[in-house]
Design a protein that fits this description.
- There is one protein chain.
- With 255 residues, this protein is an alpha/beta fold.
- The chain has one domain (8-253): Rossmann fold (3-Layer(aba) Sandwich), CATH 3.40.50.300.
- It is 44% helix and 16% strand.
- It contains nine helices and seven strands, in the order βαβααβαβαβαβαβαα.
- It has a seven-stranded parallel β-sheet with strand order 3-2-4-1-5-6-7, with helices on both faces.
- It is globular and about 50 Å long.
Length: 255
């Protein structure tokens, strides 16, 4: 009997740039790996920018230059006694095979492999890569162009790829990002109804807008939010309701 634990393949994916897919990949991976005790790896297949590969280099340099962060990092790694999660660069058309090989040969059983995939269906191999995910999470904002692009993309995944049956996809989950808590726009109600009519799944948690999603740790910073080598600060997570998002995320993927 094969008792080998299954490694979940998860992607934050969208057809629209700037909605936070790479940021959420980092936030989720770092929270699960450094704070919650899971073992995580990341494949950066977002050619040509490969932003997560570049982010890790910047994060390591920032820790070495910042005494407060250096102490935080030392305390973290001696407490949890595990290395930073690996981030590997790969092409979208063969990333599934590379990830499966990595999971099979890893000295540490992997709970989740996150994939940062290109934001266009025209990229060679992207639909195959998406079909190989177990769970897909798609950030949306109350912007007409973003919504139109996202709903078309999500329907493509649900109606074409999932219904063909040749897929590993178990759930596709839309979630609100960059929500302005002061704004009472009727757009949210309109889009909620539309998402429901299309039979798509929308998460209950909404991530509030924050400038921290768009910037990394600064030279004199004493806290961390978006980082590949440390988890986001718990107070900052609570301020933008990222903590509620992670709780719902974990329930969906059933780790």
């Amino acid at each position: 009997m094969d008792t080998k634990k299954r490694t979940l393949f998860i992607a934050f994916s969208s057809q629209k740039g700037g909605v936070g897919k790479s940021t959420f990949t980092t936030l989720a991976a770092s929270t699960l790996h450094y704070r919650l005790g899971y073992n995580v790896a990341v494949f950066d297949a977002d050619f040509p920018q490969h932003s997560l590969m570049k982010m890790k280099k910047r994060d390591l340099a920032m820790v070495m230059e910042n005494e407060a962060l250096k102490k935080l990092a030392y305390k973290q790694f001696t407490t949890i006694n595990k290395k930073a999660y690996p981030i590997m660069q790969h092409r979208a058309d063969s990333v599934l095979e590379a990830a499966q090989e990595f999971a099979n040969t890893s000295s540490v059983p992997l709970d989740v492999i996150f994939f940062d995939l290109p934001g266009t269906v025209n990229t060679p191999g992207i639909l195959k890569a998406l079909a190989g995910m177990h769970h897909i999470f798609t950030p949306i904002t109350a912007d007409r162009v973003v919504m139109e692009s996202t709903l078309i993309f999500t329907q493509l995944l649900q109606d074409v790829i999932m219904k063909k049956g040749e897929t590993s996809i178990e759930t596709i989950n839309l979630f609100w990002n960059q929500v302005d808590g002061r704004e009472r726009t009727p757009l949210y109600a309109v889009y909620h109804n539309l998402i429901h009519q299309l039979g798509l799944s929308l998460m209950q948690s909404q991530v509030k807008n924050s400038t921290r999603f768009r910037k990394e740790s600064e030279v004199n910073s004493k806290t961390v939010f978006r980082s590949t080598v440390m988890p986001p600060d718990e107070r900052l997570m609570k301020a933008c309701q990222l903590d509620l998002f992670i709780s719902e995320f974990l329930k969906i993927i059933q780790l």
